[in-house]
Each structure stands twice: as C-alpha cells, then as structure tokens.
Amino acid sequence: MSSKKCYVIVLLIVMFIGGCQGTKGENAYQKEDKVVGKKMHSSAKVDPSIDLSSNQYVPIIIEFKTKPAKIAVLEAKEKGITLTLEEAKRQVEQNHQTFRKLLTVLDEKNIPYKVKHTYKTAFNGVSMEMPANEIKRLLSSSVISKIYPNKQIQLDPPINPSEQM
Predict the structure, then answer these.
(1) 99-152, pLDDT tens digit by residue?
(2) What's the CATH number where 63 sits?
(3) By the 8 A CB rule, do 60 and 130 touch?
(4) 59 and 151 in contact (C-beta within 8 Å)?
(5) Do β-strands 144-149 and 45-46 pair in parallel, antiparallel, or remain unpaired?
(6) How many CA atoms lie within 13 A of 62 on its CB side?
(7) CA distances from 33 to 16, 20, 97, 128, 141 (A)
(8) Radius of gyration of the CA atoms of the chain, in A
(9) Is the distance from CB of 99 to CB of 80 less than 8 angstroms?
(10) Which candidate, 108, 94, 89, places its Cα nearest to that of 142?
(11) What InterPro entries does its record include (predicted)?
(12) In a domain, 164, yes or no
C-alpha cells in the first residue's frame, strides 16, 4: 500500500474515532476548545497532543468546516435541503481560497510553512508543516474546523481464527 493511501486511511480512522466519542463527558477536543476559545475566540479545535508552545516544525492535517462536495449534497438531502453538486464544489473551493488568503498573511509575517497536499474529494482540507507555536495563528480562520497531528500509526494485522487456539 502506498504511503499516500496509508495517510488517507489513518486520517479516516482518526475522523471516525473522533466522531464516535460519547457526549456525556467532555472529550479532549472540548477541553482544549475551552482553553483555546478563551484565548483565540475560535471554534477551531486543535488536537491536545500538539504542543503549541514548541517552536519545532510539526506536520499537521487541517480539516475545513465544509464537507467534501458529494458528502455535503448527501447530508443536505438527508436534512431536506436542496444543494447541487456544483454549489457544494464551489463551497469547497471557496474554503481553499479563504485558506490561501490566510497563507498570504503568514507570508507577510515571515512565518515559515509548507503545504504538502490539498484534499477536496474524500476530505476537505490540507496537510502542511509549520512551527507548532505558529499554529495559533490559523485559529482565526473561519474555514478551519480541526487541526490534527499528521502522524503515521501502525495497525496490528488481523488475527486468524486458527492462531487464536
């Protein structure tokens, strides 16, 4: 399996696990949001495993608030809202344009970063690298939903029934 496919699979697993958390107690994102929200007045959530005080470069994945076009159309249909695929694609593209404007601000302030990939189909967002202590500057963006560390994880291979005995 290629490295790119592994990252996408890991990302989808992280998103699935994050979406399956219970709502009775606070999850790590909610706790972090209270801290970040007081400082930044942002609805974006940063994974608490990212040390925002470090000046080390960190690879991150940024999830935008707008769903990928096909998913947005299906969710809208489920809610009884009419949304064309073309309009949903325009919204996704608008997210990316807004984010590029934020990158222009980073350029003006001489903040180093490198955008690795942009995602628009199965996931709406970008992967990039930047100093961890500069991630806070991204939180002012109205298009960002969550920021995850971009790290590779290893899944254990499935156990064959014959090996269990």
Answers:
(1) 999 999 999 999 999 999 999 999 999 999 999 999 999 998 899 999 999 988
(2) 3.30.70.80
(3) yes
(4) yes
(5) parallel
(6) 29
(7) 19, 18, 25, 21, 15
(8) 18
(9) no
(10) 94
(11) S8pro/Inhibitor_I9 (IPR010259), S8pro/Inhibitor_I9_sf (IPR037045)
(12) no
